[in-house]
Write a structure and sequence with these properties.
Blueprint (H helix, E strand, L loop, with lengths): L4 E2 L1 E7 L2 E5 L2 E5 L2 E2 L7 H4 L9 H15 L4 E8 L5 E7 L2 E2 H7 L4 E2 L8 H5 L9
Parallel strand pairs: 4-7
Antiparallel strand pairs: 1-6, 2-3, 3-4, 5-9, 6-7, 7-8
Amino acid sequence: MPAMIVCEAPAVIDGDGIRCRGVGEVRLLGIDAPDRRSARPCRGQYGNHVCDDRAAAASKASLRAGLRLGPVRLQPVKRDRYGRLIATASAGGTDLSCWQLRRGAARYIIRYDAGRRVGRTCPTLARPSH
């Protein structure tokens, strides 16, 4: 994976995903945010997803607030099976996965945390959900 990149024109997709101009969709490493009931994971009833419209909206708003902390920088980790970039992301020096965990807007999922990066960055917040 390439070195650190700047996320141009970051936009929130949901509580654990952003879109960056020239990069596309980026999933935040190590976390899972609630999904809307109409989202694919909830409609298909696969996996252990939290399906709650109100919680999904709050998580999205939390991440939007996190993006306002400053320039967003990405450290790519890998691509998922859908081709999305999985990365650590920070805004103004604040790790956005930790931000979401601290605000109760997402849960830590150890199997999503390649190299246990999030677990090391915010160990008091990263308690495995499964």
